[in-house]
Amino acid sequence: MATIVFKCPHCGGPFECAEGDRGAVCRFCGVTSVISGDTGVHRLLIRERIDLNNARAAVRKLLAAGGDARESASYSFKESTLIFLPFWRVRGMATGWQWREKETFREEVDYDENGTRCTRTVKGENERSFSLVAKPLDFSTPAGDYTPFGQMRVGLAAAVLKCEALDYQDAASRGIVVDPLKGVAQVRQEALAMIRGGGDSDGTIRQEARVRISSEWLALSYYPVWRLLFTRDERVYPVTIDAVNGDVIRCQFPGEEQRERFLPLALIALVLLGWTTMPTAGVALTALAAYLLKWRVGTLDVSSIIKLLAGTSKRSVGVQRG
Amino acid sequence: MPKGFPFFAKELRLNTTRCPQCGFKAELLTESDFHTCRQCRTLFRLFGGRSVSEQYFRHETNDALAWGALIALLDYEGATAPAAPTAITFGYHPFWFADLGNGSTRFKAAGSALDGYPLPSVPPPGDLEFPPPSRSFPQPTIAPETFLTRTEALVRLRLLQLPLYLISFELSGQPCQATVSGCTWQVYLADLPDETGIHISSSRLLFLGGYVALLLLAGTLAPNIFWRIVLVALILLTAWWLERSGGRKG
């Protein structure tokens, strides 16, 4: 919801204003209010560079590269949605202090009664360190769980690509603008955890830190992805494509079905041909069929023979991303 | 100061709140947990003195797509036996979603209709909307007190209505249950049963039966070995062609 609801300072009625507006008129009392302050969250949009045709072409190209052309053509395109996924971005200075206690080990060389040299590890005194923290912070994290869309890292993209202020109506007319489900408090916690967890943490047994973010700048960057649905034999395969660079972020297409089609039919024909001709031929051709079966399948196990006749198939590893 | 002052103060705080939809100041004139905003006529509830917002994900029902997403995942998981749907039920199901003051969140199903079905552990991504007054959704049967204590600092409590397909199906002759999200077509699936035995479809049995019958007929009716071989070869090639074309269509 990019529409912001304010309370009119004059009549108390709610009125809406679009993000970025500096003034708004109350529809109840008609009083114009000036919107000021910088405590809000910037909402920025990265515009899509890949259109639907190019997104579909990227999937076809990936399928063709992963299998034979006939297999990739068997998938039919069903529907598409452009989705704007919000990512939190926090910038500022992380300042505070950090105390850490580490256990240390040293190697001692010793000689036994036979004069053989041996080395043993001995625990040394714990090492305590206190440090002041003053680091520039630039942290980005998804504003929700985007597992169904695959793993995305847009921190760098949001820093490099051109962003524009989110025009909700415009974006919503082109696709789905996803609402952030992660709150600001959680984002700050994650950013601070990254600062605290950085550095050498080997052997740390205790640590204490008080770190705060100063000069904080918060933004929600909306990153565009295409969500396409492909179908084959009633099955549905969702695909996520990066709408900025055209990379396929997530897909799970099955591999080609591997099934013996000719062998079971040929073996049945061979056996029946023999037994309908004469018993001696029947025995001979059954033995030949058993030999062929052993050569091809590797076993004369009854369940393997039934599986072969039943046409049970195995799938090779297909095209997968994410 | 009267002895019961803290309790009295708590009651006083409950007298006013804000509508979760329009932000309008709402005066609570009754002790009920359900109130109607005078401005936008939205029905909202209270929990711990805070108004609870109800939001939903817009979705158009398509049972075929939900089933297709499930069987595609079964293929991926390596199930070789065919799955047969027993029941596909679409519906909106209420979930509590709480933002706590320490930055963490909690997510819990608020309806008992989902018992036995695998459920999402986090809210799915999507465009959340406030339900219009004309539309009603199933109400929660599990109170937020079951997973929240009043002492926890609660920033925001939301009732999310998730579009879910509850699918009962049979795999290897055993009943299974799966849930498919209408927001992302993500499939939530419990452990698949171990496939025991060999499953031969009826169409395969029919095909093999017809093939054997034709071979036997050709073998017994052919006047000599030459014609027998020719007929058997013809039947074999025809059956192979049918097998290939049938396999390509799935």
Short descriptors:
heterodimer, A: 322 residues, alpha+beta, nine-stranded mixed sheet, two-stranded antiparallel ribbon, 8 helices, 17 strands, flat, B: 250 residues, 28% helix, disordered N terminus
Q: How would you describe what is shown here?
A:
The complex is a heterodimer of chains A (322) and B (250). By secondary structure, chain A is α+β, with helices and mostly antiparallel strands. Chain A has three domains: 4-37; 52-96 and 138-195 and 212-253, no CATH class; 262-321, no CATH class. Chain A has eight helices and 17 strands. Chain A has helices at 52-66, 69-73, 155-160, 168-174, 184-197, 262-277, 279-297, 302-310; strands at residues 4-7, 14-17, 23-25, 32-34, 42-46, 76-102, 105-111, 117-123, 127-142, 163-165, 176-177, 204-232, 235-242, 248-253, 257-258, 314-315, 319-321. In chain A, the strands form five sheets. In chain A, strands 5, 6, 9, 10, 11, 12, 13, 14 and 17 form a nine-stranded mixed β-sheet that branches. A two-stranded antiparallel ribbon of chain A has the order 1-2. Chain A has a two-stranded antiparallel ribbon with strand order 3-4. In chain A, α6 (262-277) packs antiparallel against α7 (279-297). The model of chain A has no long low-confidence stretch (mean pLDDT 82). Chain B is of the alpha+beta class. Chain B folds into three domains: 13-47; 55-189, no CATH class; 202-249. Chain B contains four helices and eleven strands; from the N terminus they run αβββββαββββββαα. In chain B, strands 3, 4, 5, 6, 7, 8, 9, 10 and 11 form a nine-stranded mixed β-sheet that branches. Chain B has a two-stranded antiparallel ribbon with strand order 1-2. In chain B, α3 runs antiparallel to α4 (225-249). Chain B is rod-shaped. Chain B starts with a helix and ends with a helix. Mean pLDDT of chain B is 80; it is low at 1-14. Chains A and B meet through β1, β6, β11, α5 and β12 of A and α2, β8, α3 and α4 of B.
